[in-house]
């Protein structure tokens, strides 16, 4: 990180960083039994793959459609044919649990005068539902969706959105993501990046590395210069 740049804003990825993407399936674990974990993991994997593929193909669909298509793939791959359960899982994705430390960290940053925002692949409606359901609305200065650009992360134009919306230069933004590829993309753009490595992943080999790596958001205020 550029030590001379004071952090003016902390910008967060949403899914996997603030919100637990596996909490939707966890609520219906009894219905899926032993398939719960593999279905949830495949749902997430295909969701991400479809964002990258649609961006490369030049055929954008919003994150709600991508999420639905990914779930349909995961259920089909595991021979789960239950329309009622499918609908319940999609509904659950609109009210994902946020990680325990999230509200306190956002509050601490806000009280210190650091602006906070979400920058996400999520569609506006999905993000609004997740933020409202977790009680985070009053702790965020902006919720920014890629939808207005019709392209997904890690395209550089997505990260530029945060600079434009917050009117802050890239070197004054600290960006947080639990996704290694997203952290890499943000660093390539020019953000100060803290990788929230919740899942003990390996670093990507793409020529850029995050400035910091922490296991959850608890240590973030200190990294952002908040005593």
CATH superfamily of the largest domain: HAD superfamily/HAD-like
Proportion of residues in helical segments: 40-55%
Question: Which fold does the CATH topology of the largest domain refer to?
Answer: Rossmann fold
What's the number of structural domains?
A: 2
Order of helices and strands: EHHHHHHEHEHEHEEH
Q: How far apart are the first and last residues' alpha carbons, in Å?
A: 18 Å
Tell me the radius of gyration. 17 Å
Report a brief summary of the structure:
This protein is an alpha/beta fold.
What does this structure look like?
With 227 residues, the protein is α/β, with parallel strands linked by helices. The protein folds into two domains: 9-19 and 97-223, HAD superfamily/HAD-like (Rossmann fold); 23-93, DNA polymerase, domain 1 (Orthogonal Bundle), CATH 1.10.150.240. The protein is 44% helix and 12% strand. The chain contains ten helices and six strands, in the order E-H-H-H-H-H-H-E-H-E-H-E-H-E-E-H. The protein has helices at residues 23-26, 29-32, 36-57, 63-77, 83-93, 102-111, 124-133, 156-166, 180-189, 220-223, and strands at 9-12, 115-120, 142-145, 173-177, 192-196, 212-214. It has a six-stranded parallel sheet with strand order 3-2-1-4-5-6, with helices on both faces. Helix 3 (36-57) crosses helix 4. The longest helix is centred in the N-terminal third of the chain and has 22 residues, at 36-57. The chain is globular. It starts with 8 loop residues before the first strand and ends with a helix. 40% of the residues are buried. The model has no long low-confidence stretch (mean pLDDT 96).
């Amino acid at each position: 990180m550029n030590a001379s740049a004071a952090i003016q804003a902390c910008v967060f990825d949403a899914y996997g960083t603030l919100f637990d993407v596996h909490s939707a399936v966890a609520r219906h674990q009894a219905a899926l039994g032993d398939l719960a974990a593999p279905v949830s993991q495949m749902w997430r994997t295909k969701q991400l793959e479809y964002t990258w593929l649609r961006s490369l193909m030049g055929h954008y669909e919003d994150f709600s459609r991508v999420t639905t298509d990914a779930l349909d793939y995961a259920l089909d791959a595991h021979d789960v044919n239950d329309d009622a359960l499918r609908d319940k899982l999609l509904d659950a994705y609109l009210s994902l649990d946020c990680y325990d430390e999230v509200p306190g960290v956002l509050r601490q940053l806000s009280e210190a005068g650091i602006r906070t925002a979400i920058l996400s692949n999520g569609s506006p409606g999905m993000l609004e539902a997740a933020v409202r359901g977790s009680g985070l609305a009053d702790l965020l200065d902006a919720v920014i969706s890629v939808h207005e650009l019709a392209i997904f992360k890690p395209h550089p134009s997505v990260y530029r959105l945060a600079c434009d919306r917050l009117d802050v230069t890239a070197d004054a933004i600290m960006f947080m993501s639990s996704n290694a590829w997203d952290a890499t993309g943000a660093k390539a753009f020019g953000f100060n990046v803290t990788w929230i490595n919740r899942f003990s992943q390996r670093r990507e080999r793409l020529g850029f590395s995050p400035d910091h790596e922490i296991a959850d958001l608890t240590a973030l205020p200190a990294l952002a210069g908040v005593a």
